[in-house]
Specification:
Layout (H helix, E strand, L loop, with lengths): L10 E2 L2 E2 H10 L6 E6 L4 H9 L7 E6 L4 H11 L7 E4 L9 H14 L1 E7 L4 E4 L5 E5 L5 E10 H13 L7 H6 L6 E4 L10 H16 L8
Parallel strand pairs: 3-4, 6-10
Antiparallel strand pairs: 1-2, 5-9, 6-9, 7-8
Amino acid sequence: MDDKERKQYLLLDGRPLISHTIAVFSECNMIDEIFLVVPEEDFAFCNDNILNRQNFQKKVSLVPGGAERQDSVYNGLLAIDNIDDSIVVIHDGVRPFIRSEQLLECITCAIDYDACILGIPAYDTLKRVDSSGFIENTIERNTIWLAQTPQAFKYKLIRDAHENARRAAITGTDDAMLVELLGIKVKVIRGSRCNVKITTKEDLLLAMSILNTIKLNGVGGRAV
């Protein structure tokens, strides 16, 4: 993002990005509690500028993050009461436009299949490129999907997956990958191209465009 402010705290329509994201989960009747994993030095900021300023319907607990994303997720898992059959939903804080109905579908799918993620089919032509920048071949995209979050799992399954990865010193690109390494199949359901992960300044402009469209359609700021 090339900004002195962490991207999750950048303002979108006058509110930190992360506040928009938390609101969707807070309003979901299948979510019992929210664990917000952030650097420990940000706790005071989060309390003052997010948790104490927003009337979230669900309890939000702050959890200190780790050196890498995977470490942060594991810290979040450790903070949850150990109920093996409960569902854990892992989501990127900078994906504020997750639809509430997609969140519900992801949870109910994890109840049925133990593991479920959102994704969208690849819509551009995919090229495998060598280290010098030349195309090696074109990848058939019919079976290629782009993974998104939320990703939902039975608690014991995702904790076992993380602990297995830690023992084997494996770093995954997402949590579903760690479950796959256990030989477990992960169900994929269709997400949305609006469910963008805001990582660049261009993404922030796109987010404003999406939010303006929501307002124009009279949805009152709810995720699309």
